[in-house]
C-alpha cells in the first residue's frame, strides 16, 4: 500500500557550473520545483536520456550540459502538493495527475506499482502526488548524471535575474548567484490575499494569513472558536483540519456558498463534440460569451436530458445543500462533472488568442462556473464536512463580517443580522494572489514574485506570447526565459490546471533543447 513520506535530503553544497566550459551546450536553470518544475525537468532530460540509451554512449551532450533546479523545498514538494497532512486531498483525479505529457496514466501506474487498488477517478492525498514527483525526479536525475548531464538542486529562493554578456545571472536569497544560458520559471503562489476588512490585522498573532502548511492549524490549542474567512477549497481544507482537532469552526464569505459536489475533477469518459466546436468560435464575435454558454448547455444535454438545475441543490441552507448534493453525486446524477475538464481546456484554447481586456471579461462572465463547478469539492471531502455540520462543530455564517476588533484576548466580530460574536482565532482561507513578475525600470532586471509585494520601481509583465517566452517589451525579441504553470495566468485562464501545465512543460522543454 502507498505510504509516501517527505524526503529529508541534506542541504547540498554550493552550486558550481560545469567544469567543461569549453564544450558547447546549454546550462539551464529551472526556478520552482513543484509539480510543474519537476515536469519541466523530466521533459528536459528525457530526450537526452532516450537518445543516449539508443546510442549506447555516455559522452557529454551537445545540447544540454547542465540543469540546476532552484527551490528551497525538496523537488516535488511545493505548496500545492507538499503538505503531508492526510486530510489534504488532491481535487483532481488520479487519471488527471500525470506529470509526463506523453504518458497520461503515469501517476496511476505509479500508484498501482505501490499497491494502490483504487479507481482512476478517485482522489488521493496530495502528499502522494509530491512523493511521485520526487521519485520521478530522483530516477531521471540519476539517469541524466550517468549519461553526462550535470544536475544540481540548490535549496534557495530566486529573487531576480539579470543579463550580462548574453548570460543570465539568477540571484538567490542566500547570497550567491547562478549563471545560465536558459531559464525556465515555474512560479508557485506565495502572497496570500487580504480579505475585505482585515488588512489592519494581517500581522496579529491570532490571525493566520493562510491555512498552509496545515501544521499551523494543528498547533492551535484546542478547543477553540475559529473563524475561517472563505468558503472555497482552502477554507474546506482549514475546516477539516480544525474540526478534526476539536475546534468549533465557522466559515464566512460574501456569498456564503460552498462549492458544488462531485466525485473528482477527472479526465472525461467520453467525447463532447459541442465543446470541441467551441474552440473554433470566432474570438472577435461580440456574442462569444453567449455562444460559449450554448455549447456548454448542449454538451450537458447530450449526456443527460435533465437540466442543470436538477443536477444540483438549490437549498439556501449550506448544510442541507451539501447533503443533497452528496446524494446527487453518490447516485451519479450530477453528470455535469464530466464536462468540467473539457470546458476548462476549451476555454484555455479559446481565451489564449483573445486580447487581454476581452479575456478578462470572459473570465468575469464565467466566474459562476469557476467558483461553483470548476473548483467543486470532492465527494470524500463533502462527506467529511457533512459529518462536522451534523455534529455541530462546523457552520457557515449567514453574512460576512463588517467589523473585527481584538479585545481582552478575543476577536469581536460584527456582521449583519447577528449579535456580537467572539472567536479565539481567525484563519484567512481566501487563497493567494497569482504570481506577478516584473521588469525593472530600465528593463535590465527581472523581479520574481515572492512573499513581498512587487518592487516599487518595476513594471508588471502583462504580455506573454504563445511561445511562453518573456520579452522586455511586447515587440522586443524574446529572451531565453520561459514561463510555465500558474505564472502563465497573464495569457492562460485556469493556469493552475495541471494537465495543461504539463503540456506547457513539454512545449518549453522542446524549445530549450531546439
Automatic annotation (TrEMBL):
UniProt region (Disordered), positions on chain: 1-21, 266-286
Alphabetical list of Pfam families matching this protein: NAD_binding_9
Biased composition (Basic and acidic residues): 1-11
InterPro entries given in the database record: FAD/NAD-bd_sf, HpyO/CreE_NAD-binding, L-asp_N-monooxygenase_NS-form
Record-annotated FAD-dependent urate hydroxylase HpyO/Asp monooxygenase CreE-like FAD/NAD(P)-binding domain positions: 29-188
Protein name: FAD/NAD(P)-binding protein
Species assigned in the record: Streptomyces flavidovirens
Amino acid at each position: 500500500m502507498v505510504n509516501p513520506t517527505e524526503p529529508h535530503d541534506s542541504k547540498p553544497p554550493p552550486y558550481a557550473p560545469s567544469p567543461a566550459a569549453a564544450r558547447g551546450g546549454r546550462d539551464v536553470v529551472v526556478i520552482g520545483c513543484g509539480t510543474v518544475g519537476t515536469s519541466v525537468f523530466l521533459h528536459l532530460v528525457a530526450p537526452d536520456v532516450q537518445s543516449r540509451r539508443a546510442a549506447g554512449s555516455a559522452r557529454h551532450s551537445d545540447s544540454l550540459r547542465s540543469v540546476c533546479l532552484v527551490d528551497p523545498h525538496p523537488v516535488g514538494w511545493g505548496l500545492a502538493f507538499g503538505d503531508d497532512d492526510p486530510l489534504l486531498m488532491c481535487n483532481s483525479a488520479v487519471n488527471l495527475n500525470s506529470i509526463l505529457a506523453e504518458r497520461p496514466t503515469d501517476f496511476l501506474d505509479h500508484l498501482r506499482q505501490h499497491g494502490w487498488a483504487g479507481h482512476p477517478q478517485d482522489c488521493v492525498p496530495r502528499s502522494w502526488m509530491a512523493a511521485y514527483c520526487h521519485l520521478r525526479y530522483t530516477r531521471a536525475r540519476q539517469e541524466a548524471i550517468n549519461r553526462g548531464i550535470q544536475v544540481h538542486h540548490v535549496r534557495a529562493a530566486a529573487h531576480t535575474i539579470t543579463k550580462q554578456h548574453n548570460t543570465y545571472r539568477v540571484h538567490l536569497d542566500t547570497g550567491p548567484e547562478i549563471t545560465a544560458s536558459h531559464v525556465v520559471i515555474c512560479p508557485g503562489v506565495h502572497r496570500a490575499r487580504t480579505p475585505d476588512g482585515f488588512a489592519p490585522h494581517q500581522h496579529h498573532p491570532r490571525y493566520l494569513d493562510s491555512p498552509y502548511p496545515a501544521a499551523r492549524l494543528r498547533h492551535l490549542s484546542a478547543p477553540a472558536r475559529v473563524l475561517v474567512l472563505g468558503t472555497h477549497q482552502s477554507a474546506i481544507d482549514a475546516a477539516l483540519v480544525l474540526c478534526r482537532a476539536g475546534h468549533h469552526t465557522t466559515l464566512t464569505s460574501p456569498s456564503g456558498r460552498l462549492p458544488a459536489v462531485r466525485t473528482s475533477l477527472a479526465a472525461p469518459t467520453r467525447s463532447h463534440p459541442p465543446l470541441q466546436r467551441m474552440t473554433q468560435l470566432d474570438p472577435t464575435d461580440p456574442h462569444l460569451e453567449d455562444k460559449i454558454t450554448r455549447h456548454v448547455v448542449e454538451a450537458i444535454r447530450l449526456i443527460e436530458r435533465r437540466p442543470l438545475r436538477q443536477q444540483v441543490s438549490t437549498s439556501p441552507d449550506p448544510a442541507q445543500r451539501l447533503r443533497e448534493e452528496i446524494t446527487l453525486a453518490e447516485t451519479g446524477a450530477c453528470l455535469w462533472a464530466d464536462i468540467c475538464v473539457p470546458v476548462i481546456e476549451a476555454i484555455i484554447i479559446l481565451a489564449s488568442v483573445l486580447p487581454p481586456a476581452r479575456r478578462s471579461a470572459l473570465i468575469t462572465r464565467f466566474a459562476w462556473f469557476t467558483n461553483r463547478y470548476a473548483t467543486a469539492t470532492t465527494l470524500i471531502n463533502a462527506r467529511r464536512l457533512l459529518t462536522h455540520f451534523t455534529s455541530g462543530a462546523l457552520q457557515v455564517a449567514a453574512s460576512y463580517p463588517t467589523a473585527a476588533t481584538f479585545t481582552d484576548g478575543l476577536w469581536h466580530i460584527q456582521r449583519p443580522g447577528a449579535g456580537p460574536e467572539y472567536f479565539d482565532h481567525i484563519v484567512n482561507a481566501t487563497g493567494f494572489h497569482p504570481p506577478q513578475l516584473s521588469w525593472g525600470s530600465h528593463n535590465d532586471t527581472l523581479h520574481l514574485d515572492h512573499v513581498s509585494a512587487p518592487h516599487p520601481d518595476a513594471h508588471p509583465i502583462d504580455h506573454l506570447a504563445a511561445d511562453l517566452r518573456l520579452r522586455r517589451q511586447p515587440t522586443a525579441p524574446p529572451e531565453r526565459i520561459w514561463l510555465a504553470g500558474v505564472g502563465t495566468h497573464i495569457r492562460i485562464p485556469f493556469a493552475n490546471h495541471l494537465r495543461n501545465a504539463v503540456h506547457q512543460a513539454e512545449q518549453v522543454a522542446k524549445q530549450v533543447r531546439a
